[in-house]
Amino acid sequence: MRKLALSDDILMQVEKPARYIGNEVNIVKKDPEKVDIRVAMCFPDVYEIGMSHLGIQILYEKFNRRDDVYCERVYSPWPDLSKIMKERKIPLFALETQDPIKDFDFLGITLQYEMCYTNILQVLDLSQIPLLAKDRTDDDPIVLGGGPCTYNPEPIADFFDFFFIGEGEMSYEEIYDLYKEMKKNGSYTREAFLRAICKIPGIYVPSLYEVTYKEDGTINEIKPKYEDVPAKVRRVVLPNMDEGEYPMKPIVPFVKATQDRVVLEIQRGCIRGCRFCQAGMVYRPNREKSVDLLKKYAKEMLKNTGHEEITLSSLSSSDYTHLEELVNFLIDDCADEGMNISLPSLRIDAFSLDVMAKVQDIRKSSLTFAPEAGSQRMRNVINKGLTVDDILNGATMAFKGGWQKVKLYFMLGLPTETDEDMMAIPELANEVAAAYYETVPKEKRQGKCQITMSTSFFVPKPFTPFQWAEMYEPGEYLRRAKVVNDTMKAQLNHKSLRYQWHQADVTVLEGIFARGDRKVASSILYAYEHGALFDAWTDFFDLDLWKEAFEKCNISVPFYAYRKRELDEVLPWDFIDVGVTKEFFLREWNNAMKESVTPNCKARCSGCGCKSYGGGICHAV
Fold first, then answer.
1. Residues of the chain with CATH 3.30.750.210
2. CATH 3.30.750.210 for the 239-360+578-621 domain, yes or no
3. Is the pTM of this model over 0.85?
4. Distance in angstroms (rounded) separating the CA atoms of residues 32 and 152
5. Which pairs with CB-CB distance under 8 Å and at least 24 residues apart come from 606-614?
6. 3-state helix, strand, coil in the chain (%, to 5)
């Protein structure tokens, strides 16, 4: 019988003990004594969120196909268990074998959002692995990071041995083969291994680069310490999506996950070019999976999991060429009684509404639009490509189809935003509400409509045309939210309108981490050592602690958050080549300032540079 890492008395003390026992349906079981390499894949957040992440599932499938590799999983223990483990010195363990992470060869951490950075340190600390890479020995696991936050890894560079820049289906074979060979012939040392892998495409080893600064605190230069270390790290991309591994038997958790369904990735990348969107830039070029392969995947995954819902994963599902054929197949061939189909990232048009009417309970569900900005001027600035007629026509069709709940997502704090742009948000929502009362006769209404506006505060991200933009102090973000709220209260249909906004303090912190340099690492370490953890969770976020950390570590919040970057400034991520050129981002920044719209990739190639990858939309139009 498998021995658990936690005793029964500990499991009885913590919330949701099923988070920690493993042995779920479809886990991979191997004899750890019969493999050469042991890998622990970590999502640094609670189990329910980590189990919803498709990227780890893909890598879990890919790595475990190798007979010489055993890949297991680990997530951040909830604070109740974290406290017990620290007090009793219980090492963090993998779910499959319950073995300590410190005994593994690699610890791979996926970096999905900046507010998980203290959780990374929690995972290392509980694993009894030195927090700083420079303090690790040859007996410690190699700690690597991957995911969206690696497009500026500098604020957490001190904690990692290397980062993987790009898509995980690529390059790992070479990494594992080299590690195995060095272990076998006795040439392995941590330093020698890192010096060797830095030449593999997509690999960034922070310890092999040095950063110098100017007197004003901006970066002077980022350069390799040795001649054989690449000056630029190029993002790696899977050119043909049909050739990548995909989990046909996804693990089915014991605890209800955030995304408790089969996830079908239909394409990567986006043709739209929204200027605020990092994912739309760094996942270029747009690459589709073939519809026949997706049909096969859908049937097999539903059979292997017993899930009652399937969702189509994409940045913009409406742009998938064969969407109608795929959706009709799912409805006709897969949607048994009780089966739901989730269709996120859809434009609200006649086809989408027809499909959703077939797969949703209209009375309970709400439709989601993401105009991102209230005024047409701002939508042109951000290159959103939506007109007010598009939004109202979609809403009108929805109301005729039986919906009466609509969610509208916006951003506040975008470059060039004025009070008039902010006031346009509830004005647009009011037009949508008015369309309901004009469209649906009184005798057919199921009560009043409900239009919910939700605003997040804009965070400039690396490798976007807005990477140079300024941010604002929390009070200014809240003032902008108040402008929206006050305008809403003055609207004719305001009783049909609801308004929600995000935390301003967390936004500023996210901005510091998104565009920070290596100096920021000291504040993250200080905050963790003084109790910061699960910062993405409102219940645990402690603003005063972060203020203290920045003060103690001489991190200037105005310098890292509120300052507009100069267009010729050396940015902390300039040593990374994502395939999209800096010239393109500069061109798009200037287009934004001129309120000029750039056509989508299917309409016209805008010369972003991604044609060099040799696949996807760049070579299909």
1. 239-360+578-621
2. yes
3. yes
4. 35
5. 606/273, 608/281, 608/284, 608/579, 608/580, 608/581, 608/584, 609/579, 609/580, 609/581, 609/584, 610/284, 610/285, 610/579, 610/580, 611/285, 612/579, 613/237, 613/239, 613/285, 613/579, 614/239
6. 40, 15, 45
Assigned token pair, 205: 């080893």
Q: Which residues pair with 498 in a beta bridge?
A: 452
Element at 563 (helix H, strand E) = none
The Cα–Cα gap between 509 and 535 comes to 10
Could you report the per-residue pLDDT of 198-216, keeping only the tens digit for each?
Answer: 999 999 999 999 999 999 9
430-444 burial, b if ≥16 CB within 10 A, otherwise e? bbbbbbbbebbeeee
Q: Which structure tokens are listed for 225?
A: 């310490």
Residue type (1 letter), 154 = E
Residue 575 tokens read as 């040593």
As a whole number of angstroms, the distance between CA 170 and CA 174 comes to 9
> Is the peptide bond between 224 and the residue preceding it cis, with omega within 30 degrees of 0?
no
| Strand 209-213 to 219-224 pairing | antiparallel
Q: Which residues of the chain have pLDDT under 70?
A: 1, 335-338, 360-364, 621
Distance, in Å, from the CA atom of 232 to the CA atom of 202, rounded to the nearest integer, reads 10
Q: How many CB atoms lie within 10 A of CB 18?
A: 13
Nearest Cα to Cα of residue 237 among 148, 170, 150? 170
Residue 152's Cβ-count burial label (10 Å; 0-12, 13-18, 19+) is buried
Amino acid at 308: E
406: DSSP letter: E
